[in-house]
Amino acid sequence: MSSASPAAPAAPADVAARTDAAEKPPEGSASKGRRNGADRHAAFAIGVATTLAAIIFGLREVLPNPNEGVTNLYALPIAIVAVRFGAIGGTIAALLSLALFAEWEMSNSDISVGAIGYLNRGTAFLVLGLIVGRFANERRLLVGRLAELATIDPLTGMANRAKFEAEFSAELARHRRHGRPGALLLADLDGFKAINDSLGHRAGDQVLKDVANVMCEQVRGTDTIARIGGDEFVVLLPDTSAEQAEAKARMLSDVVATSVRTVGGEPIVLGLSIGWVGFDGNTLGSPDQLLHAADQAMYRVKACRYA
User: Do 176 and 261 lie in a common domain?
Assistant: First the structure.
């Protein structure tokens, strides 16, 4: 099988309709929103802890013998701080609570808990802060891991379609705002079905992994590369001219064709057809329309190769 023929840009008619896609928030707005939400949660937790501390100080002044009751109330701010700030925050809150309890005990001459009492309360405070904080830490890690998995293709480790669409919308809006050129490449494997049919789906999966590894090695850190389904890949190239996009498409086609030549010890014939479309500050059309334009360009390349 011959190597990929030159990738062709899409016709302007493919991207003629203007939509509101360019008005989507720039990249990073979602993470900024999450940070703002986290700040609000922190402020709320601190406010609740402060309020509870004020209640504790008030109760210890009016209750005739509030030894055990007030001690138990200290658990509330410890737990709240541990949930928000983890095991370290819970430990600090436990030590502060023990210090406040000691100050209260010393200010009341008719109440004395003794060394054993301090040891018991200190241990209880620390255990509470550590356990609640540990669970909070594990929950944050799990939530973060689930959020990460929701944006990753499980087979190749690349970004998945959802992640790509979010990145592309943000990148397109940014390029329109600043007038910088960019390009979108859409690649489809040639000969992949024959490999699946003859060698099995396990071999096909390995081919997809090998192709993904080769392509990832050829892109910049600022580029976004994703598998959007089956044997289709996309590469988003910020700050890239039309000439650079065409050169990148040719290079990726050549590298994949020459690098992925065997799977499981069996020789294979594999190609990569790539279509691309450029965009800048004057480009009209939604992300979906631009993706469709690149898809049509890819099929024109494929048709030329096998004409």
Answer: yes
Instruction: For the beta carbon of residue 182, count every other beta carbon within 10 angstroms.
Output: 22
Task: State how far the Cα of 216 lies from the Cα of 56, in Å rounded to an integer.
Answer: 58
How many domains would you assign to the chain?
Answer: 2
- Whether residues 166 and 273 fall in one domain: yes
Report which secondary-structure segment, H or E, holds 8.
none
On the question of pLDDT at 154 being above 70, the answer is yes
188 a catalytic residue: no
- Helix segments in the chain, DSSP class H: 29-62, 67-73, 75-107, 114-149, 161-178, 192-199, 201-217, 242-259, 287-305
**Measured distance CA(114)–CA(117) in Å, rounded:** 5
Pairing of strands 232-238, 224-229: antiparallel
153, 210, 223, 231: which is the annotated catalytic residue? 231
Give the span between the Cα atoms of 163 and 228, in whole angstroms.
Answer: 9
Side chain identity at 145, as an amino acid letter? R
Shared domain for 98 and 174, answered yes or no, is no
Helix 242-259 vs helix 201-217: angle between axes, to the nearest 10 degrees? 140
Q: What is the pLDDT of residues 271-300, one digit of tens each?
A: 999 999 998 878 778 899 999 999 999 999
Q: Are residues 84 and 167 in the same domain?
A: no
